[in-house]
Design goal:
alpha+beta, elongated, 4 strands, single chain, 8% strand, Outer membrane efflux proteins (OEP), 10 helices
Length: 410
């Protein structure tokens, strides 16, 4: 890479927050930002690096032992503590090595590699969790913004209606019940707008916690993909994690079974004597398994029991993931039905009522208060519909982002 290209890349990274804050934020970009700055994902990646290094070391032989000493040094008599006067005194230096068979080393390395695979999965799960929480925060902020648009519009309408009522009853010294009612209505509308602004501010702070930049304007949420039940269960972080746990338990049981064969240790040493011939010694240490049925076999059985435990936990987690998927898809279907029913049975009549109230008012057969009441009811209906749409989007986000997908890779 040239120096100019490297400088451009550094500047792009430096100004990334400013660029993100300058324009509208999309859901996809928010997800990318969240994964990039997730400390949980970074910690998981460090765990992967640690486990990978440990796996590389697991298949090696133990370090050799350097041995040095003095044999048969007298401690009484005229030659006491002398290393040169007695013919049996010998200075010794040697080396020893515990020997593990190739199969044993392969078994230990397999355990370490299975643990590294488990760490890699945790890194993916951390990234997926960051994406899920970011998506939920994004949806809350987006729908809070939509609700604020409604409250701002309602506030504007009430202000116009109040000014019209004041002009209509200018000669009444401000004591008209209609003017007073609309004044109270404006206060109500302003309070509702303040409440929605507070909710939007809280939602934006929650979103900024994940993306790291303020997001005043959010793009509409695209359609979220819905996985099949089989894909949802197969990609569940809990299910995948327990599958890795089973592999670790099986490899650990294989290591325990390999301990049925003892590790030999050989030693080679060189002895030096003053005035006499030097000597070389060679020896082998062999552990005696005096009761393998009570020790080695029991340790192997203990490890195999952990395999069965992990398999049972996997079966339970698979059932839980399947039930979770069915509950989420049921919620999606129920919310979609409620939204369609609410639009046709509640929102449409509310709009018709508002239109009718305006028509009656224009014919001087009703007051502005009736118009406000109709509009306020329509506003409440629209807010309720937004809440249902938000609940639907949050449920769909859980279906889309809870499983581990290609986009969840850290």
């Amino acid at each position: 890479m040239s120096r100019n290209a490297l400088r451009a890349a550094v500047l792009a990274v430096a100004f990334l927050p400013a660029l993100a804050a300058a324009g509208p934020l999309s859901l996809d970009y928010a997800l990318d930002l969240a994964v990039q700055r997730s400390e949980a994902a970074r910690a998981a990646r460090a765990g992967v690096a640690s486990a990978s290094e440990a796996a590389r070391a697991a298949g090696q032989l133990p370090d050799p032992m350097l041995r040095a000493g003095i044999d048969n040094m007298p401690i009484t008599g005229g030659d006491r503590l002398s290393t040169t006067r007695d013919s049996q005194t010998m200075k010794r230096i040697g080396i020893s090595q515990e020997w593990l068979s190739r199969d044993k080393r392969a078994a230990r390395q397999a355990v370490a590699e299975a643990a590294a695979s488990r760490q890699a999965l945790q890194a993916q799960a951390a990234a997926a969790e960051a994406r899920l929480q970011t998506a939920l925060a994004y949806l809350d902020a987006y729908f809070a913004g939509e609700a604020l648009k409604l409250t701002t519009l309602t506030e504007h309408h009430v202000h116009e209606e109040l000014e019209a009522a004041r002009a209509r009853f200018a000669a009444s010294a401000g004591g008209s019940p209609e003017v007073l009612a609309l004044t109270a209505a404006r206060g109500t509308a302003e309070d509702e707008a303040a409440e929605v602004r507070q909710q939007q501010s809280a939602a934006q702070v929650a979103l900024q916690r994940w993306v790291g930049v303020p997001a005043d304007e959010l793009l509409a949420v695209p359609a979220l993909p819905a996985p099949t039940e089989q894909a949802y269960v197969a990609s569940s972080p809990t299910v995948l994690g327990l599958q890795r746990d089973i592999e670790i338990a099986r490899q650990s049981a294989a290591v325990a079974a390999s301990e049925r064969q003892s590790n030999w240790t050989w030693e080679l040493s060189y002895g030096q004597r003053t005035g006499y011939a030097d000597m070389v010694s060679f020896g082998v240490s062999i552990p005696l398994q005096v009761a393998p049925a009570e020790r080695q076999d029991r340790e192997t059985a203990a490890k195999r029991a952990l395999v069965e435990k992990a398999e049972a936990e996997l079966a339970e987690a698979t059932r839980t993931a399947a039930a979770e998927y069915r509950a989420l898809t049921s919620d999606v279907q129920r919310l979609q039905e409620r939204i369609e029913r609410y639009r046709s049975a509640v929102l449409t009549p509310s709009r018709q009522r508002t239109a009718a109230a305006m028509a009656v008012y224009r014919s001087n057969q009703a007051t502005l208060v009736s118009v406000f009441e109709a509009r306020h009811m329509e506003f409440d209906v629209q807010r309720r519909l937004l809440n249902l749409q938000r609940d639907l989007a949050r449920t769909q986000a859980q279906l889309a982002f809870k499983p581990l997908t290609a986009g969840a890779a850290p």
